[in-house]
Design brief:
Blueprint: E1 6-8, E2 13-20, E3 23-30, H1 31-38, H2 47-53, H3 55-67, E4 74-76
Parallel strand pairs: 3-4
Antiparallel strand pairs: 1-2, 2-3
């Protein structure tokens, strides 16, 4: 069973799930972090569109964070998205 990603207006974050070893791990990334990392020159972009365009990469980052000991919910930060992080 998968869980569709969604934008949570009160927190200003996209919430999504990543399957890791048969378990679904909840994660989130703020609208600002998405904008800063993937669309710094854009204004008024849709955070869901930005998330969907980069979902595979973001799931890889979640897997890396979990492998390094992070527990659910995994909150992705700008630092996690740097090249070589």
């Amino acid at each position: 069973m998968s869980f569709p990603p969604s934008f949570h207006e009160p927190s200003g974050a996209v919430r999504f799930y990543t399957e890791i070893n048969g378990l679904w791990v909840g994660s989130s990334i703020s609208k600002e972090t998405l904008h800063y990392r993937f669309r710094p020159d854009a204004s008024g972009e849709d955070p869901m569109a930005t998330y969907l365009a980069n979902a595979a990469y973001l799931e890889t980052v979640v897997r890396r964070r979990v492998a390094s000991g992070s527990i659910e919910p995994v909150m992705l930060r700008e630092h996690d998205l740097r090249p070589g992080a």
